[in-house]
Amino acid sequence: MAYQTLIVEIEDYVALIRLNRPEALNALNSTLLGELADALAAADKNDKVRCIVITGSEKAFAAGADIKEMSEQSFVDMFTKNFFSTETDGILKTRKPVIAAVAGYALGGGCELAMMCDFIIAAENAKFGQPEINLGVVAGMGGTQRLTRFVGKSKSMDMHLTGRFMDAAEAERSGLVSRVVPLAQLLPEAMAAAHKIAEKSLMSTMVVKECVNRAYETTLAEGVHFERRIFYALFSTEDQKEGMSAFLEKREPQFRDR
Ligand code: CO8
């Protein structure tokens, strides 16, 4: 499917989704977020996709929600349209693993979109921020909640209250991103990680995602209970037998998603 604001390529079981509004530093408008939710739902259904990478340009992953689209809206407009809700709910429904490959600006909704992915790989020039305070508003796609869980209250308050940007080194130190690589290595590194994930049993990668995300939604005891139930359930699969036999037979496993 052709999109106005995205470029989607699928190769070797990895879908690469590029945000493509260079004229606005990939600012997130309703079209882009709607298309992204659609592309992710299609990738989730596609047997030729086992992992997804979302990226932007070298200058910007996304410089936030589109200020031009929002500036003249009233409270009633925002409330009655339920602005961005369907789109972000759609993005969050993705069951296959999603990696954010971030270069340049990931600000406001851009930082929030990166945090909705399963993990973030950053280029050395990445800059993260929640500068909504400079516009007289607050984060609205989960930034006050997710950034706080990633980096803790003190740094999250600092970012949201001052609107300052965090560079890639600070983002890695603070636990916001999993790895930092030179800009030229960003896509090769993210694609290599995605291909490694694509080699695993799809069921296992999907349940890893469910289990880790549970950590954000429940108590420790409930989360551990959920994980153990899933662990036991995986003993009903052929991939568990194959994975463990392959280890004992000193060979590579051949997973069949069964
Ligand atoms: N929205 C719309 N257009 C943008 C945005 C944006 N967020 N960011 C950049 N652009 C446009 C600029 O207007 C400019 O367009 P033009 O050439 O037509 O004037 C073009 O992109 C290039 O930008 P700059 O000339 O400003 O480039 P610089 O390199 O000088 O600066 C910055 C780059 C620092 C990234 C700067 O563009 C900037 O500060 N952008 C705004 C960052 C921002 O405030 N982001 C937060 C937006 S609010 C938000 O994200 C809320 C999310 C919650 C939504 C919740 C819904 C429920």
Reading off the top of the CATH hierarchy, the class of the largest domain is best stated as Alpha Beta
Number of strands: 10
What's the helix-strand series?
EEHEEHHHEEHEEHHEHEHHHH
Total separate domains? 2
What is the CATH topology of the largest domain?
2-enoyl-CoA Hydratase, Chain A, domain 1
Helical residue percent band: 40-55%
Q: Keyphrases for this structure?
A:
258 residues, 2 domains, 2-enoyl-CoA Hydratase, Chain A, domain 1, 6-stranded mixed sheet, Lyase 2-enoyl-coa Hydratase, Chain  A, domain 2, 4-stranded mixed sheet, binds octanoyl-coenzyme A, 16% strand, alpha/beta, 10 strands
Task: Report on this structure.
The chain starts with 5 loop residues before the first strand and ends in a 10-residue tail after the last helix. The protein has a six-stranded mixed beta sheet, sandwiched between helices. The protein has a four-stranded mixed beta sheet with strand order 4-6-8-9. The chain has 258 residues and is of the alpha/beta class. The protein has helices at 30-45, 67-70, 75-81, 85-92, 109-116, 143-151, 153-162, 168-173, 186-198, 202-214, 220-233, 238-248, and strands at 6-11, 14-19, 51-55, 60-62, 98-102, 105-107, 119-123, 127-129, 165-167, 179-181. It has two domains: 6-198, 2-enoyl-CoA Hydratase, Chain A, domain 1 (Alpha-Beta Complex); 201-249, Lyase 2-enoyl-coa Hydratase, Chain  A, domain 2. Helix 1 (30-45) packs parallel to helix 4 (85-92) and helix 6 packs across helix 7. The chain binds octanoyl-coenzyme A. The site of octanoyl-coenzyme A has 21 residues, from helix 2 and strand 6.
